[in-house]
Amino acid sequence: MSVEIRGKEYRVKKKKGLLTLNLSQKGITDMLEIKGLEKLTDLEALNLRYNKITEIKGIDSLTQLKILNISQNRIKKISGVDTLKNLDVLILRNNDIKIIEGLDNLSSLKDLDLWENNVTQINSHKILRQLSRFIISGNPIYNEILYFTGKTKSEKLNTFILESDEKREEIIREIKHKEILAQKSKVEEIPQINIGKLIGYLFLIAGIIFIGFIAFAIYMVRFV
């Protein structure tokens, strides 16, 4: 079994017990450049790392695929994987994905890696709850809660990520409100200066200095 890219052949190999096709660093910009890929219906692992792919397509027939690695590409949207019912691992790190979506039919998915994308929204909450490994660090949606809580690993953080967009906004509002109250409390703890008393003290000090000056002057006159 093999595919062809710009006249060059690449064969499927058995690796770690899986029928694997390694197309890493082949300068692929469009998955349709991979001639014959749709015929590899028994393929179990596909590696497309370090290419220039902008859209996932042409793999609808690869229903036996268990591992799909399209990291370090230019993917902007998760799509074209709906038919991969046996997919167990999906690696999409270092792309430009903004929304987690298009995963609802992947009932076998257990490992999703979206490290270093631009995720700000989640539409596939149900599928995420079935994952045993979920990497989302390096995304705005991960970083915004760290900004408020400073926590990198906690049940609260995981809960926040898996919540709906509305619920996350509510959590952030609550955290912001608590921060404002805390700052207000600190301001109230600062002793308030009584301007009237301050002026009185200044006059008193000035009077003492003046009297001292007069007394000193009288004392000096006596010796002239």
Specify Rg, calculated over alpha carbons.
33 Å
β-strand percent reads: 15-25%
The CATH architecture of the largest domain can be given as Alpha-Beta Horseshoe
> What order do the helices and strands follow?
EEEEEEEEEEHEHHHH
Number of domains: 2
Major sheet description: 7 strands, mixed
Structural class: alpha/beta
For the termini, the CA-CA separation is 121 Å
What integer is the average pLDDT?
A: 84
* CATH superfamily caption of the largest domain: Ribonuclease Inhibitor
**Which class of the largest domain in CATH terms?**
Alpha Beta
Helical content class:
25-40%
Task: List the strand order in the largest sheet.
Answer: 3-4-5-6-7-9-11
As for the CATH topology of the largest domain, it is Leucine-rich repeat, LRR (right-handed beta-alpha superhelix)
Total number of helical segments? 5
* Strands, total number: 11
**Envelope shape:** elongated
Unreliable stretches (pLDDT < 50, length at least 5) are: none
Q: Which short descriptors sum up this protein?
A:
2 domains, 5 helices, elongated, alpha/beta, 224 residues, 11 strands, Leucine-rich repeat, LRR (right-handed beta-alpha superhelix)
Annotate the secondary structure layout.
Elements: E1 2-5, E2 8-11, E3 13-15, E4 18-22, E5 45-47, E6 67-69, E7 89-91, E8 99-100, E9 111-113, E10 121-122, H1 125-128, E11 133-135, H2 140-149, H3 155-162, H4 165-189, H5 195-221
Parallel strand pairs: 4-5, 5-6, 6-7, 7-9, 8-10, 9-11
Antiparallel strand pairs: 1-2, 3-4
